[in-house]
Amino acid sequence: MDALHAHEVVESMAERSLLVVEDDEDLADLVALHLRDMGHRVTVEHDGRAGLQRAQTETFDVVLLDINLPGMDGLEICRRLRSAPTYPAILMLTARSTELDRVVGLEVGADDYLTKPFSVRELVARVKALLRRMDAFGGADETSSTGPLKAGELEINREARTVRVAGQHVELTAREFDLLEFFARNPGRVFTRAQLLDNVWGYAHDGYEHTVNTHINRLRRKIEPDPSKPRFILTVWSVGYKFADAAELEAGS
After folding, report:
1. pLDDT above 50 for 7
2. Where are the alpha helices (DSSP H) in 11-107?
3. Most confident of 26-35, 97-106, 127-136
4. How many C-beta atoms lie closer than 10 Å to residue 57's C-beta?
């Protein structure tokens, strides 16, 4: 972590319950200190199994989860939390920095990924982004947030958070589902990568646009009959992406 000055006052948010699972006690205490400065309730565990038990028996809005933990690694904890009907947002904290490690973390259901060493400001920004995204998805009116979405052979059940294509279940990560749902709620509208980051991830920082590309490529492999000729998520060259509207879906069928 970079040189850390005395903790600064950060803008207040509604109090939330956060869990930090990190075996480096000094780092865990420092992270907890800054999250409490944000006005949140923070619980800390240093062992993987203890962290999983705490997350399964208490209600948390966000879990900050190290990958390398004694007892049980963070990837397995993430898998188990994501197998439950309801689960918190998960921010991975790890010293691993390769693209493969990041992809694995996202594939098992992490909502975001922060590589050590990281700055406290970056950590705070990521937590705020997760909470804003939760509020955005949870605060929409019922007609826009819970009803099923259908586009050709694609069906999105927003209450169960499941997706089917031509009647076949498609397994998506939490972030892939959120991205697909956002697209499907806005057919025909073109979004830049920065806009997608802001609306789905909750932040728009230079240098993170590749995250959007990676998720869209994975989504296409999972939902498109021919990923090289996508029907649902279309590229708008030099601008960004859009979800096909009814006329485009009809023309492509």
Report:
1. no
2. 25-37, 48-57, 74-82, 99-107
3. 26-35
4. 7
In order of their start, the domains of the chain are 17-138 (3.40.50.2300), 142-252 (1.10.10.10)
Nearest to 149 by CA among 184, 177, 186: 184
The model's pTM is 0.59
Distance of CA 12 to the CA centre of its chain: 22
Q: Which residues contact 194 (CB under 8 A, 6 or more apart)?
A: 204, 209
Return d(Cα 191, Cα 169) in angstroms, integer.
Answer: 27
pLDDT at 60 over 90: yes
Considering only CA atoms, which of 75, 116, 82, 76 is closest in space to residue 96?
Answer: 116
User: Looking at the DSSP assignment, which residues form a beta bridge with residue 210?
Assistant: none
Report the amino acid identity of residue 152.
G
Share of the chain above pLDDT 70, in %: 81
Give, for 131, the enclosing helix (H) or strand (E): helix 120-138
Is it the case that residue 250 has pLDDT exceeding 90? no
Give the C-alpha separation, 4 to 117, whole Å.
Answer: 12
d(CA 174, CA 155): 16
Convert the pLDDT of each residue in 66-107 to its tens digit: 988 999 999 899 989 887 777 788 898 887 665 556 666 666
Q: How far apart are CA 199 and CA 129, in angstroms?
A: 10
Q: Could you tell me how far CA 209 lies from the centroid of its own chain?
A: 15
Q: In terms of Cα–Cα distance, which of 70, 69, 111, 67 is closest to 93?
A: 67
Query: What angle do the packed helices 74-82 and 99-107 form, to 10 degrees?
Result: 30
